[in-house]
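Narrative of activities, Objective 1.

The group set out to show that a structural description can be obtained from nothing but a protein's sequence at a throughput compatible with the screening campaign. Below is one input-output pair from the validation batch, recorded exactly as produced.
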Amino acid sequence: MSLALADYDGDGWLDLYIANYRVTSIGDQPDARFSLRTVNGQLVVASINGKPLDRPGMDKSVSLPYMDDGKGSVKFSKEELGEPDALYRNTGHGHFERVSWTGGAFLDEANQPLKQPPLDWD
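Output recorded for this entry:
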């Protein structure tokens, strides 16, 4: 975790930006066990270490694309995504309010409000 202070909104008060990361990683678990299943004809990872991927916090935090060699072997690559960073606007006198990633303060490359927080880590 790291932080930065800056007056992002120009009101004369230092605002707080916190860069988050993941507390745990699949890379930290060399003995991780993956359970697979077929959904709509596609092989998907159903769980990691017995914990389903559709539980809160996992649905956007891990992507496990795979390649099937056609000989019964599957090779996975992993992409783990971080936790959203946080921006807190200083409202003065030591009071801060969290700025929403999707409330219009953050825009995408098309100058549109973000639809979800960016999750960039791995």
